[in-house]
Amino acid sequence: MTFNEVLDNFKIYVEKRHKKQGFITLITDFNNQVLPYFKDIDIKNLTKLDIIDWQNKILDKHFSNKYNSKIYYAFSKFIDYCILRPDLPIDENIVRQVGPFPKKIEVKEYTVYNIFQFLRFRFHLKDYVIKQYFSFIYSYGSRPGETMALRFCDLRGFKLHIIHNLQRKGKRELDTPKNTSSIRYLKISLLWKFKFWLLKRYYLKVLGCYSDYYFIFGGSKPLAPTTIDRKKKQAYEKAKLPNITQHEFRHSYATRKIHHKVPIDKVSRSMGHSKVSTTLDIYLHQEKNTF
Fold first, then answer.
1. Kind of pairing, strands 159-162 and 155-156?
2. What CATH number did the domain enclosing 176 receive?
3. Model confidence, pTM
4. Is 130 within the bounds of a domain?
């Protein structure tokens, strides 16, 4: 039985066991980087040399360590599924026997805005809602998808419950956050409590109605990433600032807080990291080179 012949049932298996965005990512990685090499191969004839040869070809593409890990995971899950099938005489995961891709040395650098750069950027943002969207990420370090998914019903007093993530593609439906640590409460300031009230008033004036289920940054429907990026580009070009991604406003939050000696565990909790070491690994060297 070939890879192609098993693929449809594998998709059903993965879809039942992963979040929607995770399912899309895993299948996309498998289809792009695994299937083209093995689609007509009989699974029971797969050898370690086949896996090594595939790894060598992938390494020649110079993907990041993170992407290589995702490809390796997708391939491993496929073989795990094949082991479960009684019609395939496979007892061990040959991909895991070969092992993951060797890791190369990577120096990750992020472009971030300090407070003065951010204020210049925000000054040139003309869209009121998008201005508040970037201000919130810069103030609290939430992920863009989490921020787009926030609704007024998630606000309880001075606590904001981050419990959803907005799918990046497709119908842009609400999904669960990245991991269990990402489900968290953020304690918001009196200023942001007032800003949320102003956003409610804004939607009531512009849309003529309001609901607690409105998106805080968007109203009756969430903001579109393409719209956000277009407005962002207009603002940073007018401010004569370097381009940074939406996610790098989250990085800006972290480097700023670490620079100002905010306890690392507090920064980590605010950002929804599962481990403090994750925050240290990503941001500590960046902070030394930025502020």
1. antiparallel
2. 1.10.443.10
3. 0.77
4. yes
